[in-house]
């Protein structure tokens, strides 16, 4: 790593990007590939051979020995199987390096162990990976050397999606078709494609590697299952946007350089609200590229941390009592000509196309609030949503003053005649140059906020893929666009029809708009009065995947079949049960083998001390006795809670996989875990620090 970095020089150097393709591929092949990328035209086997050959030559120049189809099964992480480029030995005993078009386009990992939700039985477990040429291939350098990574989709023998990528690409096709229809109605004859643009802000924690290893809960589950609050938390707000520690700065520099080489536009970095919490945001990209980039970001954050003696925690809630981590998913729609459909301009009331788009999005989010909520459901995210640090579990839309005013004009009169104008910011200091402030303030408590020229979906968990959220967004908005186009294409008077439709959409779906404080108790009541769903935890969201409404939506736009939805539902219940089971068993292990023995040691030391003091003829042992009584009573409580947790966990393990089991974990096992944590955290506050068997919150959060 050089001390000073020439970003422009290293950016994208390990990516088989447009510039490389243009330079290396024969003109005709380049042109055809571009057409495939932009318009989805078929690619001939001969073309694929040429591309594969050039890709291999380029990768070998970068030091690559292997290639891999890189895919995203439903495990939450990416998967890969490596093959070297070597051929069978020639008669002279040497080998050649080869990579064919077939190998580029199609892979068949023996991936029968990935969750398929019953879509594949293991005896007929063929699964294919298929090249996604819309997301560029790249060479990754790590301990394995250099590997050519080819982004792929992963599906079953019969073409059912087994991954995050396939439905995402399908949903991008759906929104493209419907958005183009809508643009044509407004006279746009030149745009060829509408692409969802996505920017995902990634939050994470950094902790000391050695201390991490001393905590089995962090090792096995990614979060602490025990831990008393340190004397200081985040209450002083001195970490948020504070000066970044040198050790962390060096880490961020290293992360950025790795990401830039891989063509990931790492842009913003800062300290977050909680101690040891940070954020990294790239510049937005096409949805499928951003989904891949976000996976690359998460992997890079983790890999580089270990080279700096740290561990990167991506879990949504590594520490109870301090803020958890999320991932804001910024979303807009852009044409291939660079026009953003969500840009209101300076006078939104005159921008009819924008207002129609906005009214459709409101309708989509209102009709499918449950699905949007489900898309962010994740085991770890249950600790955040509705806990006054992240949006509530209730979906609502923040529009801000200006757009809400325009919406209300349309609702009451069918016409919008004015837009609230922005004003000069007056700081009272002459030396500060004037500028116009934004027409609307921010609202950090809203799950779905309009922020100037994009919507920011703030519910996604930090560890989760952003694909499901974007699949839902793309598809529900495609449906609303379709319903609008069906009406408008038939209209005799377009002007009147479009106003009627906007008025109808805004009127029928204004209940989803909420500009107030999403963290307040009042909002929960108000939302209930408005009839908005409040799905408080992951298991409660899963059924929404197969509601009649959801099946109709996803089948209509070719995003999921009913069988695929059923499979995903099954996988989600199983994932939930497995994750809680691991947490419960980790608690049982830590409490039984580490915590209870440590407390026994402590109480024995106290008892020995009392005896020694009494033997020495001093009778004042009140303090020691009080501590002994307190510790013994908490120890008893711990042991009882531990036994109960053992019992319910054993019971859960007996149950058949599925909904009932997942609910049993939620309703029985989680409360038993909480009951065990309580006395243990109280014990941590009184037991000698030298005896306590693991690093404390204070050690982890303040001594990276
Ligand atoms: P903040 O929301 O904190 O003000 P930014 O405005 O910098 O932050 O944007 C946060 C993320 O949103 C970044 O990843 C940024 O690239 C992305 N973003 C900005 N504009 C758009 C857009 N039109 N569509 C999608 N994402 C966008
Ligand atoms: Mg933001």
Describe it.
Strands 7, 8, 9, 10, 11, 12, 13, 14 and 15 form a 9-stranded mixed beta sheet that branches. Strands 1, 2, 3, 4, 5 and 6 form a 6-stranded mixed beta sheet that branches. The protein is built from 22 helices and 15 strands. The protein has 3 domains: 7-163, Glutamine synthetase, N-terminal domain (Ubiquitin-like (UB roll)), CATH 3.10.20.70; 171-425 and 433-560, 2-Layer Sandwich (Creatine Kinase, Chain A, domain 2); 576-702, Four Helix Bundle (Hemerythrin (Met), subunit A). Helix content is 47%, strand content 12%. The chain has helices spanning 7-10, 18-24, 27-39, 45-61, 101-105, 165-185, 209-213, 216-221, 246-261, 287-307, 352-367, 369-375, 400-413, 467-488, 494-509, 521-530, 538-541, 548-556, 562-615, 622-654, 659-686, 697-702, and strands at residues 64-71, 79-84, 106-107, 127-131, 138-142, 145-156, 194-208, 266-271, 277-282, 285-286, 310-313, 327-335, 397-398, 448-450, 455-457. The protein is α+β, with helices and mostly antiparallel strands. The radius of gyration is 28 Å and the shape is globular. Helix 6 (165-185) packs parallel to helix 14, helix 9 (246-261) crosses helix 10 and helix 11 packs parallel to helix 15 (494-509). Strand 5 (138-142) and strand 6 form a beta hairpin. The site of magnesium ion has 3 residues, from loops.
């Amino acid at each position: 790593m050089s001390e000073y970095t020439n970003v422009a020089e290293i950016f994208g150097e390990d990516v088989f990007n447009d510039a490389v393709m243009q330079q290396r591929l024969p003109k005709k092949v380049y042109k055809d590939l571009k057409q495939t990328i932009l318009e989805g035209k078929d690619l001939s086997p001969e073309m694929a051979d040429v591309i594969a050959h050039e890709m291999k030559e380029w990768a070998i120049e970068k030091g690559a020995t292997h290639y891999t189809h890189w895919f995203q099964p439903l495990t939450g992480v990416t998967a890969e199987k490596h093959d070297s480029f070597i051929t069978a030995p020639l008669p002279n005993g040497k080998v050649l390096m080869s990579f064919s078009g077939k190998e580029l386009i199609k892979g068949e990992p023996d991936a029968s162990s990935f969750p398929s939700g019953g879509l594949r039985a293991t005896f007929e477990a063929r699964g294919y990976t298929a090249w996604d040429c819309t997301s560029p291939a790249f060479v990754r350098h790590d301990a394995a050397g250099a590997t050519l990574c080819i982004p792929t989709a992963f599906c079953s023998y019969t073409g059912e999606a087994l991954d995050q990528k396939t439905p995402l690409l399908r949903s991008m096709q759906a929104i493209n078709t419907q958005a183009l229809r809508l643009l044509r109605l407004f006279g746009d004859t030149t745009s060829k494609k509408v692409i969802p643009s996505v920017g995902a802000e990634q939050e994470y924690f950094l902790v000391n590697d050695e201390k991490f290893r001393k905590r089995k809960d962090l090792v096995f589950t990614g979060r602490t299952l025990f831990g008393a609050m340190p004397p200081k938390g985040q209450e002083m707000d001195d970490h948020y946007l504070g000066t970044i520690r040198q050790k962390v700065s060096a880490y961020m520099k290293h992360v950025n350089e790795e990401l830039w080489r891989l063509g990931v536009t790492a842009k913003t970095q800062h300290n977050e609200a909680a101690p040891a919490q940070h954020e990294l945001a790239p510049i937005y990209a096409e949805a499928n590229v951003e989904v891949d980039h976000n996976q690359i970001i998460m992997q890079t954050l983790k890999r580089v941390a270990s080279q700096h003696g740290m561990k990167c925690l991506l879990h949504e809630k590594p520490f109870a009592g301090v803020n958890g981590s999320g991932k804001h998913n910024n979303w807009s729609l852009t044409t291939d000509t660079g026009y953003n459909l969500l840009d209101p301009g300076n006078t939104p009331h005159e921008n009819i196309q924008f207002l129609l788009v906005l009214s459709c999005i409101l309708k989509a989010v209102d009709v499918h609030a449950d699905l949007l909520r489900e898309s962010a459901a994740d085991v770890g995210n249950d600790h955040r949503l509705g806990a006054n640090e992240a949006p509530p579990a209730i979906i609502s839309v923040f529009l801000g003053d200006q757009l809400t005013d325009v919406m209300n004009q349309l609702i009451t009169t069918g016409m919008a005649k004015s837009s609230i104008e922005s004003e000069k910011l007056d700081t009272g200091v002459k030396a500060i140059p004037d500028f116009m402030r934004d027409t609307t303030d921010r609202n950090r408590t809203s799950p779905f906020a309009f922020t100037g020229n994009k919507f920011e979906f703030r519910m996604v968990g930090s560890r989760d893929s952003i694909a499901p959220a974007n699949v839902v967004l793309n598809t529900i908005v495609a449906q609303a666009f379709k319903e609008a186009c069906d009406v408008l294409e038939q209209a005799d008077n377009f002007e009147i029809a479009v106003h009627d439709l906007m008025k109808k959409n805004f009127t029928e779906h204004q209940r989803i708009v909420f500009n107030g404080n999403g963290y307040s108790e009042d909002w929960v009541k108000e939302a209930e009065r408005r009839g908005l769903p409040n799905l408080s935890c992951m298991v409660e969201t899963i059924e929404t995947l197969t509601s009649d409404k959801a099946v109709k939506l996803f089948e209509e736009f070719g995003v999921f079949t009913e069988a695929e939805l059923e499979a995903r539902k099954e996988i989600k219940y199983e994932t939930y049960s497995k994750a809680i089971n691991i947490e419960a068993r980790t608690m049982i292990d830590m409490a039984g083998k580490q915590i209870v023995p440590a407390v026994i040691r402590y109480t024995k030391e106290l008892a020995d001390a009392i005896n020694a003091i009494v033997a020495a003829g001093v009778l004042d042992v009140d303090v020691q006795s009080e501590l002994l009584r307190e510790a013994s009573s908490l120890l008893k409580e711990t042991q009882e809670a531990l036994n109960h947790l053992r019992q319910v966990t054993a019971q859960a393990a007996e149950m058949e996989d599925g909904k009932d089991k997942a609910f049993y974990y939620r309703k029985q096992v989680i409360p038993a875990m909480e009951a065990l944590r309580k006395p243990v955290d109280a014990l941590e506050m009184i037991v000698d620090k030298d005896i306590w068997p693991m690093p404390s919150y204070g050690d982890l959060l303040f001594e990276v």
